[in-house]
Write a structure and sequence with these properties.
By secondary structure, this protein is mainly alpha-helical. It has helices at about 5-25, 30-60, 65-90, 95-130, 135-140. The relative contact order is 0.17.
């Protein structure tokens, strides 16, 4: 990957894929598959949020980047984490209707969030942090 936008957008797509697999399994009432896929999705999202919150956002702010958009992204991460935890409960209870409703809400929030990051925040980060990309990529890839 040559840019933060490419690197992080690729990670968005990976999260989206595991989200879709979990959703389809839940809709099919294949709860073992749904829980496995959901756990993978939740881990992928936690890792993605950590890459941003522990590496990218601090680097961007330290370099004089815009605090407002970073704060909005953090608030949206918290909102998504709440929805993910509610989905975990629905999955554990094998509640297809509850899981489906929550997944629809989360999908909308994720799509809007990713669009803001991919079209606004990541391009800003690419400009401001151009000299630090290799270090940033290494730090983000090291997050488990």
């Amino acid at each position: 990957m040559n840019t933060i936008a490419e690197f992080m957008s690729t990670d968005h797509r990976a999260c989206d894929l595991t989200f879709a697999l979990a959703e389809q399994a839940a809709l099919d009432n294949s709860w073992n598959d749904a829980e496995t896929a959901f756990d993978t999705f939740r881990q992928n999202m936690q890792r993605h949020f950590r890459m941003e919150e522990e590496v990218l956002f601090p680097a961007l702010l330290d370099a004089g980047g815009p605090g407002g958009p970073v704060q909005v992204m953090r608030m949206e991460h918290a909102q998504m984490n709440e929805l993910i935890e509610l989905m975990a409960t629905a999955a554990a209870n094998k509640n297809t209707q509850g899981y489906s409703g929550l997944s629809e809400t989360l999908l909308i929030v994720m799509q809007q969030h990713n669009l803001k990051e991919e079209q606004i925040l990541y391009p800003i980060a690419d400009r401001i942090l151009a000299a630090e990309l290799e270090t940033l990529f290494s730090s983000m890839q090291a997050i488990q």
